[in-house]
Design a protein that fits this description.
Blueprint lengths: L4 E2 L3 E3 L17 H8 L5 H4 L3 E5 L3 H13 L2 E5 L17 E2 L11 H11 L6 H21 L24 E2 L5 H19 L2 E4 L2 E9 L2 E9 L5 E5 L2 E4 L20 H8 L4 E2 L4 E7 L22 E5 L17 E2 L1 H5 L9 H16 L4 E2 L2 E2 L2 E4 L1 H7 L1 H19 L8 E10 L2 E2 L12 E3 L17 H21 L12 H19 L6 H16 L5 H21 L11 H25 L23 H4 L1 E6 L8 E6 L14
Parallel strand pairs: 2-23, 3-4, 3-11, 4-7, 11-21
Antiparallel strand pairs: 1-2, 5-6, 8-9, 9-10, 12-20, 12-22, 13-19, 14-15, 14-18, 16-17, 18-19, 22-23
Amino acid sequence: MTDQLIDGLYREGAPIADTKAPTSVPVERRWRERQFGARLVNPANRRKISAIIVGTGLAGASAGATLGEAGYQVKSFCYQDSPRRAHSIAAQGGINAAKNYRNDNDSTFRLFYDTVKGGDFRARESNVYRLAEVSANIIDQCVAQGVPFAREYGGLLDNRSFGGVQVSRTFYARGQTGQQLLIGAYQALERQVAAGTVQMYTRHEMLELVVVDGRARGVIVRDMVTGEIETHLADVVVLATGGYGNVFYLSTNAMGSNTTAIWRAHRKGALFGNPCYTQIHPTCIPVSGDYQSKLTLMSESLRNDGRIWVPKRAEDCDKDPRDIPEEDRDYYLERIYPAFGNLVPRDIASRQAKNVCDDGRGVGPAVDGVRRGVYLDFADAIGRMGRKAVEAKYGNLFDMYQRITGENPYEVPMRIYPAVHYTMGGLWVDYDLQSNIPGLFVTGEANFSDHGANRLGASALMQGLADGYFVLPNTVNDYLADGPFEKVAEDHPAVVEARASVQDRIDRLMSAGGTRSVDSFHKELGQIMWEYCGMERTAEGLQTAIEKIRALREEYWRDVRVLGAADDFNQSLEKAGRVADFIELGELMCIDALHRRESCGGHFRAESQTEDGEALRHDDEFAYVAAWEWAGTGEAPVLHKEDLVYEYVEMKQRSYK
């Protein structure tokens, strides 16, 4: 490790590499090679091995069901009152798979290529190809579970298009695909609960990772109903806890979504990969006032038939959109990107929406003097298909929009604007989905591995189920073949230390006795993050953000006020711990964004753009994964670089024109 403090913010450490992917064989053989090379655990021995899985979304529920069915003894944890309330339920639009049902020249390689290109060439080839390869199996698995995918008249599964691609490969269940997929995974999980291989712990929140002799061996959790602190130990720990978009306060995530599980693991030594890669989703209902606590996503599937536009002249922005003639409308995505039109990737659609609003052509009510909205218009689709056909495809989404806004989207165009949605960063993992801490595996959105700097639509559900049903069960065996490991007692010094650190933190929060609410701090952090580390970032702005976040962290521990008691149901305390972690994560996100002096995908540095305003990468300097090591509170984090090598996809400037 070098001792040089770079820009006064971080140190550079030794490089890191993924040694698990069999790169000596062609990319299309690597997953089968790894499966065959991974050691196995015989069924009798599996009954002696225990696993902890934190999170019950698609990645966690499918992993729990699959490991339980294999015979492992599984403990599953979620902070919701039911596994069915995991945030995967909100992913509406669909799930990708390379089945080529439309005979439009789709293939595993094309899905692989589209995903690497969509991520702006900042993802691993091996991981992305595996994701594309197992995608078809996911659909078969879910159909067998009874997931009610949409079907064509002849009975075949239907497909629709999503952003960043020119084929139809997205399978869907109306506008509630995530809900239906999660019910399937939930039923599989509950079957194992009934069989006795899975123990379900609802309303329990992970607050610390237990590391014994360098291995992950358990978690410290808080019973959110009674306030009791509990210790749970196992042979392996799997984190499937989703993303950290709520660091921005306003996002499309469920309000309970947080970073605590992966952040506590990071503080215990797990590397954090690419924290600055944040996805801004282009089709969300705009902010309507300071009172809001979250934003609502309108599915990207709406971009299949809806046309996005703003008035050509700023003076027309006050008009009823139905009174603006065609010649005075700017269908800006269709104009700028004729090959892809409204189906450009999310990062590009989001930035262009910001650009036209910054140009004074935004629509809808002004918030803080600025109109932040563009139209998503279905008039053409209704005229072409008929209202009943549009209702059949998108009816529940239209109903949701009308309930929230009071406007009828069948008659008046929807108003949308970009909002924080998904985080491509997460804990660093190797090809086996294992972090740099042996025994700690990370799946789904909680890891960094598959999407690079931008995720294509309908790929989140694909990754979650791929990791849980097909990847983790085939790689965790290799680690568990050395088990069962020596039992760890609750009085082991490492366990005692982990539990004590949780209690000390709770005591510190409860005794702060300040004057400000937890939510007020969270909102201030979100404003800093959105202003300086949102859709557009600059060196000066990021340095300002880091200074502001550090000052906010000092004030937080000095002036936060947590109501209620620690040994009872206490949502104020729950939020307090989560916001403390968000503040620390926010600082690392800004440091990562500042160090990466290029634009790529969802990370747009204003200093690095092409002449026509597109993201400009610098592959000679930044073609690597940034894996950050925690060095201590107030200490400069350590940057470890994993070089990205492309053998099958040519790295070039993205173009969707």
